[in-house]
Amino acid sequence: MENLGIVEGFWARIEGRNVKLYRLARTGFNIKFENGKIIVELGGEEIRGEKPVTVSRSIVPEVDLLIGRETDLFSLSNTTSQVILVWGPPGIGKTSLVAKLIERVSGEQPVLWYRYTPGETSNSFRLKLRMFIENYIGYPLPDNPSNDDLVGVLDSYSSIVVIDDYHLLGDDIRKLIKWMFLKSIDTRYFIISRTRDPRLPYASGKIYSHYLSPLSIEYTRELVKTLYTLHRLAPSNNIVDYVVKTCKGIPLMCKGIVSLHARSRMKLEEAAKAILSSYYKGEVLEILDDAERDLVEMLAVARFALPLDVVCAALSSQGARCMKILARLQDLGIIEIQEEQVVLREFAYGIAGVMPRARRRSLVKKLAGHLYSHGSYKDKMLALDLLAEECMTRKAATIVAERLMTGSSWMLCCKEHYIEILEKLSNCSIESLYDAAAINIEKALMKYIAFGTEFDTAFRIFDEYLEALRVNTTLYARLAALYAGLLLKTRNIEKGRKLLKNAVEASRELPSRRKRLVAPTIYSTLTIERYLERDLAKALEYAELEAKAELELGDIVNYIMAKIHAATIYFYLGDITGLKRTINIISPLLSMQPRRLKSRISEYIHILTAWIDLGDSNYTEAIEKAQQYIENKEWNLFQQEAYLIQAISYYRMGKLREALQVVEKIINECDESSTDEDLVTCIIGDIAKGKEPEEWMINRLMPGFKKLLDIGK
Known about the structure:
Elements: E1 7-14, E2 17-24, E3 29-34, E4 37-42, E5 45-49, H1 70-77, E6 83-87, H2 94-105, E7 111-115, H3 122-137, H4 147-156, E8 160-164, H5 171-183, E9 188-193, E10 207-211, H6 217-230, H7 237-247, H8 251-263, H9 268-284, H10 290-301, E11 305-307, H11 308-314, H12 319-331, E12 335-338, E13 341-344, H13 357-374, H14 377-389, H15 393-406, H16 415-427, H17 433-450, H18 455-465, H19 473-489, H20 493-508, H21 512-532, H22 536-553, H23 556-573, H24 576-586, H25 595-615, H26 619-631, H27 639-652, H28 656-666, H29 676-688, H30 695-700, H31 703-709
Parallel strand pairs: 6-9, 6-10, 7-8, 8-9
Antiparallel strand pairs: 1-2, 3-4, 4-5, 11-13, 12-13
Helix pairs in contact: 1-2, 3-4, 6-7, 6-8, 7-8, 8-9, 10-13, 11-13, 13-14, 14-16, 15-17, 16-17, 17-18, 19-20, 19-21, 20-21, 21-22, 22-23, 23-24, 23-25, 24-25, 25-26, 25-27, 26-27, 27-28, 27-29, 28-29
């Protein structure tokens, strides 16, 4: 009726949705049948309809604006397939694309453009086919034509049949259309659908499936500028960029935002939000059931991708049921499955932006639990990041406290990102002092100690928050022991010993299961204390106890690190055999570790094997290994030790000039506060200069260094 001028259509905004309305364009009209034709009388003017009103879709829709689809048109124009399926999200431009294609290729061929009307069946579809053949093509049919008759006539005229909104069809119409595909020879079919119906006969070779993806950024920008121009407006680059970013390459969304912004007094952000909300709620989420909607919204919240196992766990659906949900969303073109990852298609990214805050927080809480429990190290990091974005500090602090409790090293996969997350959390409003303590102490460890040397800053944070953790005796005991070890390492001996005593006393109150969690840290700090007291035998005993305790907890990474501590003490004792034995135990475990951890552990092992070569008098090999360490850009913990290995090797080889050159790179002088490594360096420097080393320096040396230098008792 709109095409014939009986009514005129216009768009209006009603209850947050764009709705097309119609009003009469004529004060009166009549429609009647005469000899198989439809006659329309408009105010006395008679129009004999060659194209029946009841099949108005046989009139190919006019396309006013089609930007950025030449590649798609080329692909579709060059396929020889009899059936072309064009599918994709709502508003992507499927109808416009097919209309433009038919405009180019149809010539004089008759075109039936069929769009489903609710309630239609295969019988009503057959009736429309018959009317199209009799009234449009002009071919007389028998009273009760068979399906073969209908297909035969369509073939004889090389007809084009377009099935629009195919996804809405009932099973009976789909069955008939499928039969027609397989039966037809010269009729071409275009299917326009939101879904890729898996029941279509793709194996027949007749169907070409084409997913219509969102427009590229460049074409989206061109479309937006053109739309504003049609409204006689010249928008700024900022306005264009905002619309481009918001509409995600969906032409319908672009048109809606520009139209609403241009025709109303709404601010651009308000217009965009209104269209976004209308599109996602009305066109996307409305067609999903609860489980499907949960998944799509979870993907949007999780930044568009999740591991397959996490998805199924979060949906509380496993096996066939989970795959059925995923298959349906994949057929709708909303998701893709890529290498065990469920990925949200780009057009749906904006769902997170129109989601109510309470709903988003609920999904984040649910999702974070599954990501942390079932995911990889990076998934654990994503869980924390999602919680940090929403300032859900209670849940985040629980995860952080668990890591502090066990000393697990999962966060090393993405240390910079982890520090950023901790910064976000510490800047949130945290009601619980316990939660604030866990988050800030973790930040102190990660930012200022583990990957930095800002000990004073870290120690101030420990002093401020440690007592707040006493409500959790296990966590307090572990962190008190850890802090005590840090204090001892930085020569805060009295404070460190006092805190270690507190940690030991607190651990005695714990049940045996909890004591096991704290034991490795206490043993580690006792190792440091005994080392500082020069009781190397006892230090070695505690290091081995630490390794055993970590192994009982099943933490292989911390077990390796404890064994490295033991290996270092074997070296200080001059027991190269014990050092070799320990390295041989942990080396096979290296391949089991993630890449970043493997690199860190390899750094320790590399420098220790260089000491082994030195202890075995393999001086050339030791120098080469030390040089390899110096040249490795990823390694920097033991640069001084690498130079020291070279200096000792040159000294033992009698190359005093070369030894002195190395010494001068790393130290100038020594005093009572110097480390053991510094003392060795100073002694070599003195000998190379022809000076006699001071007696106190030689007496301070540990047995391993005395043995390497062949000096002292």
